[in-house]
Amino acid sequence: MDLWRRVSATLEEEIGRGTFPVGARLPPSTVLAQRFGVHQHTVLKAISHLQSEGIVRVDRGRGTFVVLQPIGFRLGPRTWFEQNLLENNHIPARRILSIATIPAHSDIAIALDLPDNAPLLLATLLGEADGLPVYLGRHYFALDRLPGLEAVFHDLDAEGHDQIVFQDILARAGISDFQRKTVKIRGRIPETNEMHYLQIGRGVPLLETVITLVDARGIPLVHAFSAYCSDRIELVLDL
Q1: 8 A C-beta contact, residue 189 and residue 205
Q2: What local confidence, expressed as pLDDT, does residue 2 receive?
Q3: Which DSSP string corresponds to 146-194?
Q4: Which of 127, 136, 149, 128 is nearest to 222 (CA)?
Q5: Domain check: are 50 and 76 in the same one?
Q6: b/e burial code for range 19-41 (CB count within 10 A of at least 16 → b)
Q7: In angstroms, rounded to a whole number, what is the distance separating the alpha carbons of residues 85 and 83?
Q8: Which residues in the chain come in under a pLDDT of 70?
Q9: Last residue of a domain, one of 38, 66, 94
Q10: Which pLDDT value is given to residue 201?
Q11: What is the pLDDT of residue 55?
C-alpha cells in the first residue's frame, strides 16, 4: 500500500472511533509527518484524499477539521428541523442569539403581505446537531397575526432555552396548523458573523433558504432566511 494511503487509512480509522471527533482539528501536517515518519507532501496527499471523501475540511489559515457526514435535511410542506435531525439519529438544539421588535419594510413586508411599518419580531436562531452548529437563521414573525408571541420569545430567552420548536411556539400563539408556502435556495459565501457562529472558514459555502410559512388559510406568518453549512447539511426537496 502507498504511504499516503496508509496515513489516510489510519487517520480515517481514528476519526471513526472518535480519537478525532466531529469538529476537532487534526494536528498540523508537519506534526503528522513526524508521527508517521513520512514526508510532509505524503501527509498532504492523505489529507487531500480524506477531504475528497468528505471526512475532513481544510480551511486555509485555520487547519484541517473533522466534518459531520452531511445530514439529509428534507424540505417539504411540513417537515421541520427537529424532525429531520431525529430521523437521522442526531440530537437537535436551537437557541436564541437575539430578538428584536422592528417595523416591516420592503421585501419582508411584501413576503408577509403586510403594510410598511407593521410590527415584526426578528429572532436570530442557531441550530445545532449533537452540539455542532449547522444553521444560522433570521426569522421574521408577523406580530399582529401571532398574539402573545413576543412574550413567549422573551420568556424563552430569559430561561436560556435551547429547544426552540416552532410547532410549540406557534401553538402558544393560537396557530395549530402551518406549512411552507415557498422555498428559495441559493449558495453564497459566509459573512463574518456567520463564520463565527457556525465555526467555519470563509472557504466553506453556505446554502441559504428563503422560506415563507403560512397558516391553514394561506395567510403568511413567518418569513425566514436560514444559512446552512454546506458540508454538514444536504437539502432534500421532499416532493
Answers
A1: yes
A2: 86
A3: STTHHHHHHHHHHHT--B--HHHHHHHTT---EEEEEEEEEEEPPPHHH
A4: 149
A5: no
A6: ebebeeebeebeebbeebebeee
A7: 6
A8: 1
A9: 66
A10: 82
A11: 87
**Could you list the residue range(s) of the whole structural domain that residue 129 is in?**
71-237
Quick one: pLDDT at residue 1? 64
**Does 206 share its domain with 105?**
yes
pLDDT in tens, 25-41: 999 999 999 999 999 99
- What pLDDT score does 160 carry? 81
Question: What per-residue string of b and e applies to 136-167 under the rule 16 or more CB within 10 Å gives b?
Answer: bbbbbbbbebbeebbebbeebbeeeeeebebe
Q: Are residues 83 and 44 in the same domain?
A: no
The grid coordinates of residue 139 equal 426569522
139 and 220 fall within a common domain: yes
Verify that 104 and 125 share a domain, yes or no: yes
Biggest CA pair distance of the chain = 68
Q: pTM score > 0.70 for this model? A: yes
**Residue entry with cell 478525532:** 20
Do residues 135 and 181 share a domain?
yes
pLDDT in tens, 135-188: 999 999 999 999 999 999 999 988 887 888 999 999 999 999 999 999 999 999
Query: What span, in angstroms and rounded, lies between the C-alpha atoms of 102 and 230?
Result: 30
- Considering the domain architecture, whether residues 76 and 128 belong to the same structural domain is answered as yes
How would you class 97 by CB atoms within 10 Å of its CB: exposed for 0-12, middle for 13-18, buried for 19 or more? middle
User: How many angstroms separate the Cα of 150 from the Cα of each of 24, 83, 121, 143?
Assistant: 38, 25, 7, 7
Q: How many residues does the chain have?
A: 239
Question: What CATH number is attached to the domain comprising 11?
Answer: 1.10.10.10
Same domain assignment for residues 100 and 162: yes
CATH number at residue 92: 3.40.1410.10
